[in-house]
From TrEMBL, chain A:
It comes from Microbulbifer flavimaris. The chain crosses the membrane at residues 44-66, 72-94. This is DUF58 domain-containing protein. Residues 207-228 are annotated as: Disordered. Keywords: Membrane, Transmembrane, Transmembrane helix. The keyword Membrane applies.
UniProtKB/TrEMBL annotation, chain B:
Pfam families: DUF4129, TgpA_N, Transglut_core. It comes from Microbulbifer flavimaris. Residues 409-480 form the Transglutaminase-like domain. The chain crosses the membrane at residues 31-48, 60-77, 83-100, 107-124, 130-150, 162-181, 555-576. Keywords: Membrane, Transmembrane, Transmembrane helix. The keyword Ribosomal protein does not apply. This is DUF3488 domain-containing protein. InterPro entries: Bact_TGase-like, Papain-like_cys_pep_sf, TgpA-like_C, TgpA_N, Transglutaminase-like.
């Protein structure tokens, strides 16, 4: 969080960073991260909104009017407004207090897109809740009521820019009910972790039949005529290649692997995109994964340090994209 | 996903317009027509924009609108430092703001302004109906504010209900603040409500003035006495002294009118009046007259701020009475005077002034009288005797010509108080006795067990005062010589036939209606006494009555104790609303049982069925096995078989167990004590 740009902390930005770190630490203590949070006085803050300050100004003007005209009815109006100003925060606070938020799901998203996090909001007790906004601060977020129902599921969008496993910042839950003159808010940490895939980027068509660039070494591709060994059987493997003798010997079902100069299967290889920086390569691979999935061509993924054998389907896609997302930052 | 700062939705707009209409409506009579039209036009335009038929006005149109509005204000109002232009300016800003009612912020601005406009109404009117209207306006504006959130809140019933609830919850605190917050008095001079013609008695008297007043039953004064009450024939409420006569018109004259340089004593310390002796204490609540003069009995003294005393025994206010005004007065009857009266040269000349010519017959007769009688009292008696013998009292006197006094005295001999008073003073002056005409009200009607005296415009009266060296200024009422009933019983009996015959409904004739009117007047009076005229004095009195003595400590307690109680109630309300769904009784009892078991070290695991739990208790705490199985069996019967007797049994079992646990707790302690 804190930037090390200004070690002495004399500049404004340094001070700001320090302040933010301080408040964050305080918030951590006061309202620790949890999948489920019930808002209470420990977590809620309340202040008049700008319109509320406007009402204070109106009260002051009314008081001046009443004083100068010695007019008790104007005074009464001023005092009525002042009392309203005293009563309102209770209602605003009560609107949020006892609200229960629970993380339902935080599905992965692509960098540069929005992560849509699903949250269940419920109320404790009979009091109806109105006009609750929930958002990640600069964003608009969502607004909901709990009037006719006890609970409700809400989607909140968080813009994600960097791939990786992202820890979502604190959510802001706020309400200006009933008159918009007070704002009650809480910054809750629902312990949301979002897996962010790299942003897909079109760097060329799918490398069908392309050779992975492995220097001058002889290429080894599966699916040729020369036996190269056994590998665990997976659906989609040709039955002709099943090592039946092996299987009959009481061992697991294996496919015989053959090498050949021309592998027909699709390999999305890190090395195919040599010469570009890490993130661009990951984005290109991500695009290919999506393309291959769309074209229903089984594909494998080769990254430095991890290999995913060719396959197809939702879980395979997720595994491939997750591998891309979790590729260590700043390697090479 | 909704954008909170997006264009205002339909409900928002409608609510804003409703709020504006509500707060502007009572001002409609006061505002120039073009402002109302301009406002309606702006609303129409904004609605058209909403319906997509028209664009928001461009910069040029807006500039034009602002210039037209400013020009209109300049042309409509000569005086800028006044109340009406201020309200007009607020109304104009409403209208102009409507043309660019874009965002939530604009909506809030417009509605906060509406609160202010709602309150400006009270500067003009402070009666009960207007106060109620003010409450209505506050409710509508608050509802409009709540509707700005949109969705459920914008539904009319919900918004109004919420608004009523919020304001009702604010009311107790408002009352407390109303009682406690000190009133500082004006911080700077402010423009007063100067619209409309002055009502009541004017600063001069021409024939016909008082007959005009006799047709009005509007209240003029309400007077409440503290202590003795003067007899009906003593109730003369002096307002003006006319010293100057130009042949037709009586006026105050130079040196008598405070506006023309007559000295007024504003200082309360120099009190020339005796501190002892008989006196009347009373409080006068005067309806707005738009004039400075006040009404009191002779020799008045007032402690009320802004009230001064003139040399000719009257009270005046530093500013005209634009809204109802209350002042406390003490009056000493003349007889209690100890000082020897003196009449200065200037005053003597002032009160002997007559026009150079005119009314020769009256002058000649007056000089005759002066020669025949030795002192002023005797001359006065002769004139009154003349009135008594020959004259009739009527509300419809014939018109008089150039020499009005001559024509009245020797011609028509029919008249109203102004004729009697005017010609009497003329005669006395012509005979060399200093005399002056006094105008004010005489009499009044008791309201509800003599709580206060209601003086109406038709009680307006003119009488005279003459100077006698021995007793100073003395009141003489020539009308009393002609029609004693007028003074004793009021105008209604003195001129019963003519009285108010012009009014459409002779309301005074129906006693029930009259009683109702008096009842209403009394409610108004109470309202004015307790609320409208609540000032720092009454505040002190009230606090003294409530607290015994006004010390900072007690005041703080007075403020803080209700505040603390209110806070507790609110917390209670929060807890009540936030508390979970009420579980069935059996469930609650069983949960209690689980808590107790957790207390003795066998907590129920999550998701553990009651029967399993009972079995586990039996193995882990065999001592409690029998009780646990009984409780579980009772609970199962109560919860699943809806057996009310099982529910009762469950309660009994738990009570017994607690008793047993308490005894068990006490027993070891006793052993320890013995050991």
């Amino acid at each position: 969080m804190g930037t090390a740009e200004h070690p002495r902390g004399t500049s404004l930005r340094g001070l700001q960073a320090r302040w933010r770190a301080l408040t964050t630490r305080w918030l951590e203590r006061r309202s620790p991260a949890a999948r489920q949070v019930t808002l209470s006085h420990r977590k809620l803050f309340i202040l008049p909104s700008r319109a509320g300050l406007g009402l204070l100004l109106v009260i002051l003007l009314l008081w001046l009017l009443g004083t100068n005209y010695e007019n008790n009815l104007v005074f009464a109006m001023a005092f009525l407004m002042a009392s309203l100003f005293a009563v309102l925060p209770v209602h605003t606070f009560a609107n949020l207090s006892g609200l229960n938020l629970r993380l339902l799901s935080a599905p992965p998203a692509f960098a540069g897109d929005f992560a849509r996090v699903r949250i269940a909001a419920g109320r404790i007790g009979r009091r109806q809740r109105e006009h609750i906004e929930i958002c990640w601060p600069p964003e608009e977020g969502a607004q909901f009521d709990l009037v006719d129902t006890e609970s409700r599921e809400i989607d909140v969008a968080l813009p994600v820019n960097r791939r990786g496993r992202i820890r979502a910042p604190r959510l802001r839950v706020q309400s200006r009910y009933p008159l918009g003159l007070f704002r009650c808010w809480s910054h809750v940490d629902l312990d949301i972790e979002i897996l962010v895939y790299p942003a897909p980027r079109d760097l060329g068509p799918l490398p069908l039949g392309a050779a992975p660039g492995e220097g001058d070494s002889p290429e080894r591709r599966r699916g040729g005529d020369d036996f190269a060994g056994l590998r665990p059987y997976q659906p989609g493997h040709s039955l002709r290649h099943v090592a039946w003798k092996h299987f009959a010997g009481g061992r697991d079902l294996h496919s015989k692997d053959y090498d050949s100069g021309a592998d027909t299967r699709l390999w999305l290889d890190w090395d195919l995109l040599a010469g570009r920086d890490v993130e661009t390569r990951l984005s290109g691979l991500c695009h290919w994964v999506l393309e291959a999935e769309r074209a229903q061509i089984p594909y494998g993924l080769r990254l430095p340090g991890s290999n995913l054998s060719p396959s197809l389907g939702e879980s395979h896609r997720q595994r491939a994209l997750a591998a891309l997302a979790e590729f260590p930052l700043q390697e090479v | 996903m909704t954008r909170p700062d997006s264009l205002l939705p339909r409900e928002s707009l409608l609510w804003i317009f409703a709020a504006q209409f509500t707060v502007l409506l009572p001002h409609f009579t006061r505002l120039p027509l073009w402002i109302i039209f301009g406002w309606a036009l702006a609303v129409l335009w904004r609605v058209e924009v909403y319906r997509g038929r028209r664009e928001f006005p461009g910069r040029l149109v807006k500039l034009l609108a602002v210039s037209v509005a400013l020009l209109g204000l300049v042309l409509s109002y000569r005086r800028w430092f006044a109340l009406e232009p201020m309200v007009a300016l607020l109304a104009v800003s409403f209208a102009l703001k409507n043309l660019e009612l874009l965002s939530r912020r604009d909506a809030f601005l417009s509605l906060l302004l509406a609160y202010f406009v709602a309150a400006t109404l009270f500067v003009f009117e402070q009666t009960i109906p207007y106060a109620l209207y003010g409450v209505l306006a506050a409710v509508v504006v608050t509802a409009a504010l709540s509707a700005q959130l949109g969705g459920f809140s914008a539904r009319p019933r919900r918004a109004l209900g919420l608004s009523l609830r919020l304001l009702a919850q604010s009311a107790p605190l408002m009352l407390l603040l109303f009682m406690v917050i000190p009133r500082l008095g004006p911080l700077w001079a402010v423009p007063q409500n100067s619209g409309g013609a002055s009502t009541g008695i004017s600063d001069s008297m021409t024939p016909g003035d008082f007959t005009r007043l006799s047709k009005s039953d509007q209240p003029a004064l309400r007077i409440a006495f503290d202590g003795p009450v003067p007899a009906p024939e003593q109730r003369y409420w002096r307002g003006l002294v006319y010293s100057h006569f130009d042949g037709r018109r009586w006026s105050q004259g130079f040196g008598v009118d405070p506006r023309e340089g007559a000295p007024v004593s504003w200082r309360k310390t120099e009190n020339p009046l005796p501190e002892v002796g008989p006196r009347y204490r009373y409080r006068v609540i005067q309806e707005p007259t738009r004039n400075q003069w006040l009404f009191a009995m002779a020799r008045p003294h007032s402690e009320t701020r802004g009230v001064g005393e003139t040399r000719d025994d009257r009270l005046v206010r530093s500013v005209p009475v634009y809204s109802r005004f209350a002042y406390d007065v003490r009056s000493w009857p003349r007889s209690s005077l100890v000082q020897r009266p003196e009449l200065g040269d200037f005053e003597r000349r002032r009160n002997l002034q007559l026009p150079a010519e005119g009314n020769p017959r009256a002058r000649a007769w007056a000089q005759n009288l002066a020669q025949e009688h030795q002192d002023g009292a005797a001359i006065s008696a002769a004139v009154l005797e003349f009135f008594h013998r020959r004259f009739t009292y009527t509300l419809k006197p014939p018109a008089l010509g150039q020499d009005s006094v001559d024509e009245f005295l020797f011609g028509s001999q029919q008249g109203f108080c102004e004729h009697f008073a005017g010609s009497y003073v003329f005669m006395m002056r012509a005979a060399g006795v200093p005399a002056r005409v006094v105008a004010g009200y005489q009499g009044g009607e008791w309201v509800d067990q003599e709580e206060y005296l209601l003086v109406r415009q038709y009680d307006a009266h003119a009488w005279a005062e003459i100077w006698t060296p021995s007793r100073g200024w003395q009141r003489v009422d020539p009308t009393a010589a002609v029609s004693p009933e007028r003074i004793r019983d009021g105008l209604q009996s003195a001129a019963a036939e003519e009285f108010m015959e012009d009014s459409l409904l002779p309301l005074h004739r129906f006693s029930l209606l009259n009683r109702l009117r008096l009842q209403w007047d009394m409610i108004n009076y109470r309202w004015y006494q307790t609320v409208v005229s609540f000032d720092s004095d009454s505040q002190q009195n009230l606090l003294k009555r409530l607290l015994g003595e006004v010390s900072p400590l007690r005041l703080a307690a007075f403020l803080l104790i209700p505040a603390a109680i209110g806070l507790c109630l609110l917390l209670l309300w929060l807890w009540w609303g936030g508390r979970g769904q009420q579980l069935p009784r059996a469930q609650r009892l069983y949960l209690k049982f689980c808590r107790r078991m957790a207390g003795v070290g066998v907590p129920r695991r999550s998701g553990e069925a009651p029967r399993d739990y009972a079995r586990r208790i039996a193995t882990e705490a065999p001592r409690l096995a029998a009780m646990a199985s009984a409780v579980t069996a009772a609970y199962e019967r109560a919860a699943y078989a809806d057996d009310p007797s099982a529910e009762r049994q469950l309660g009994r079992l738990l009570r017994q167990w607690r008793l047993g646990a308490m005894l068990a707790n006490v027993a070891p302690r006793r052993h320890q004590a013995q050991a």
